[in-house]
What we know:
alpha/beta
Amino acid sequence: MTLLYRAQALSQEQVAAAIYETMIRPEQFDRFFTGPTAAGEAAAGSQMPQRPRGAPVLRAHFARAAEIQEQQWEQAGRPHPGSYCGMGSRFWLLAGTGTGTGGRLLNASQRAAGQIEGRGSLAAAMGLTRAAAGRWHTFLKQVRQGAFSWQDVLVLRTRRPGERFLCRPVRLDAAGGAAAVMAELLEWEWNGEAAGQVAAAFGLQKADLRPLKAVLSGPGGRVAGGLQQAAARAGAPGTAELIRLTAFLMAEHTRDLKIARGELLPPAEEFEDTSGLRCQYFRLGSETGQPVVFVHGLLDGIAPLQRLQPQLRMLGFRVYAPMRAGYGGSAPLPRGQDPADAFVRQLEGLMHRENLQRPVLLSHRGGVLYGCRAANRLHRRIAGLVAVAPNCSITSTRQFSGLRGYAWLVAVCAARAGWLLPLLMKGWSAALRWYGPKALLRFQTARGSRERALLQKMALLPLLQQSQALFLQQGGAGFLTDVQMMRRGVPKLPLPRGTRAVFLHGGEDHVAPLRDVRDALSGLGGAQLCVSQDAGALVFYTFPELVLTALQDCAAAALDSS
C-alpha cells in the first residue's frame, strides 16, 4: 500500500471544480460586453501598483472557465443581459437604475422572480436590512449618474442569517453608456478553520481575507481596494470572482464539517429498483471524481464514512451510500426474496441512475458479504473492492464471544433460535434508546481494551444518533434480514480476475478473529489482506487513514488498467 494520506488543505482539484462552478453561470455573461472604461477609471487605474502575476494554476483555470463560458454565450446567441436564461436554483436579479429609488426589474432567475412577485420593492424582495436597503438605493443612484467604476463591488446584508448579496455594475450596451446592477445571492458563514484552508489554497495568508470577513460578516458596504490585490495574487480576474469563489468554498467546507460532526445529514435521494422496491441513498464526498459505493454494516450505518466527508472531498471521491432494504428510507425486503440479490439489483439501479462507471465498492463489517457478492456478479463493471473490518458468516455462537449484551444475545438467537429474533429486536431497540447510541460500537469492543478507551475520547454522539435513527426507521427490519442471511451462510464466490480487492482488518478484532478472516478469504483469489495490529473491530474509526489509502490504491489500480 502507498504512504498514508492525511488531507491537510483543500485539494487543487476541489478549488478548480469550485472555479468552474462559480464562473460558468449565465448571469455573468456580461463580461463579454466590451466598451470604454467609466470616467475616471483609467486615471485611478494608473495609480494602482503593478498587478501581481497570481497563482499560475488557478489563473489558468479561471481563463479556461471564461473560455467555456464565452462558448456557451455564443451558443446561446449572445444574449443581452436583460434576456439571460433564468433557469436553475440560484437567486439573482438585474435591476435597472431608472428614475426611481428602488430600481426596476430587468431580468431575474426563476427563483428570484417567484419571490419578487407581489413584494413591492426589490429591496423588500431581497430581504435586505434597513441599512442595506439604503446602500442599495445609493448604489443604484451612483450607477445612474455614472459615479462608479466597473470594478465596484457592493455587499449587502439580509435579514436571513448566512445570506448576503453581491452587487456589481453591468453594461447594457457595447458602448458602455447604459448600466444596470446585478445582485447575486451568496451563502456565507465564516469558519476560522475553513478560512485558513481557503487562503492556503489561494496562496494567500489568512490575514489577506480579513477585508472579506469584515464586509461579509459585518454590516456590508463597498469592498475595500485591498481585496483587489488579494484577488490578483490568487489569480482571480477580479474582486467579485474572488468573493464568489471564497464564499462558495467556505460554505462548502463548513457544510462538510457539519456533516462530519453529525450536525447535518448528507444529501439524500430515492429511486425504485427494477422490482419496484423503494431505495434511499446518500451522497458524500465531491461532485466529480472516482465513484465509490459504500456498503454499510449492520450496526452503525454511514457514521464511519460520514465523519470523513472533508477528506473524501479533498481526495476527489464521489461517494454514494445506498441504504439496504429495511434500513433508513429503503423499504423492507418482501418475504422470500434473497437479500444479496436484492442488494445487487439496488446497486445496478443506482449505477444506472447516477451513470456510475466502474465504481469502487467500499464495504464495512457485515456489508462485506454484500460487497463480495456484487463484485462477483457485476464483474468488469466494478473497479475494485475495499473491505474494512470484514465479518465472517454466523455459523456458531463461538464467533461472537467478543460481543457484549444484546448484540451477543441477538447473535445467539440468529444461530440457534431464529424465531425469537423479531421479539428480541424490539427489546434491543428499547435498549439502544436507554443506553445511548455509543452502545452500537461498545458491543464490538472488549472491556478495558485500547479501542474502547479511544472510543470514549471521540466526539461521535451526534453521528451515532443519526445512524441509530436510520437503524430503527423501519423497525430494525434491515438488521433482522441481514442477521438471518448471515445465519444461513453465504457461499464463497471468487472475485473476478483483475479486480483489485483489499481487505483491511484489525489484529485486535475480537468479533471476527484474524484466523477466521484468513479462512474466509482462502479461495477468493486476488484478495490482499492488510492487518493493523494496533486496530480492532473499529478500525474505520480509529485508523481512517488506512481506509483512505486503500481507496486511493484501488482507484489508482483501476485507472492504470483502463
